[in-house]
Amino acid sequence: MTVIESVKRPQQTIVEGYKELVKNYESVTCAISDNMGRAGAMTADMKPLFEGIRLAGTVITAKTVGGDLSAVIKAVDLAQPEDIIVVDAQGNANSAFWGENITMSAMNKRVAAAVIDGSFRDVEEIRKLKFPVFSKGIVPNVGAIAGYGHVNVPVQCAGLPVHPGDMIIIDGNGIVVVPNEEAEEILNKTRSLLEVEDGVQEKLKAGATIGELIDIDQLMQNGFNYQERALEKR
Ligand SMILES: O=C([O-])CC(=O)C(=O)O
Ligand SMILES: [Mg+2]
């Protein structure tokens, strides 16, 4: 079992920058994905417990072994306010890795959300508590708590590598992960892209179509043929 207690987080101004974007723009995750090479999102089978989850926070990871929840319980204890717990349960949707009691622990630590590559239970209670959970499913069966698992090690979650201290941003479109070392650059690029999007919106509101604005006819005449291109180079 590996338990890493201290996590290197992005500077507070960067974390606040992402929170500000989430406050001011609706589809921040889409702009972040665009800036990460049209990637960076968790898979679409990650479902929210309720609508309207909009958050940015830093990652604490729990990597489970079998159905054991011990790593999740320990991760909650190591969290700082507004952290997001990412549970790598290897996509095991037939076992619960989170429940009402763990939610109440997490709320006592002011954890912002749980993102689980697996399932959880006590769904009605957690909905009433309004604690944000994203998961692959909901199921009553839960594993033992027998001391197995790892905390704050690199993990995967829903198709993405995730490291402790990365940024997670969640809105109505889904979840994106920005690696800690790219957090500042992606924040700046995303701010700019959202401003550009505002400009495009103005043109659309004035009656334009995207096809006109990007000259789609010309683009489609230039269909790319890699064999022709390869021959040109001989
Ligand atoms: O107790 C467990 O193992 C999970 C659970 O149901 C809870 O956290 O309430
Ligand atoms: Mg329970």
Automatic annotation (TrEMBL):
Protein function: Catalyzes the aldol cleavage of 4-hydroxy-4-methyl-2-oxoglutarate (HMG) into 2 molecules of pyruvate. Also contains a secondary oxaloacetate (OAA) decarboxylase activity due to the common pyruvate enolate transition state formed following C-C bond cleavage in the retro-aldol and decarboxylation reactions.
UniProt xrefs under PANTHER family: 4-HYDROXY-4-METHYL-2-OXOGLUTARATE ALDOLASE 3-RELATED
Organism ancestry: Bacteria, Bacillati, Bacillota, Bacilli, Bacillales
Source superkingdom: Bacteria
Keywords for this protein: Isomerase, Magnesium, Metal-binding
Cofactor field: Mg(2+); a divalent metal cation
Family that this chain belongs to: Belongs to the class II aldolase/RraA-like family.
Catalytic activity: 4-hydroxy-4-methyl-2-oxoglutarate = 2 pyruvate; oxaloacetate + H(+) = pyruvate + CO2
A Gene Ontology molecular function term of the record: 4-hydroxy-4-methyl-2-oxoglutarate aldolase activity
Organism: Mesobacillus persicus
InterPro entries: RraA/RraA-like, RraA/RraA-like_sf
Protein name: Putative 4-hydroxy-4-methyl-2-oxoglutarate aldolase
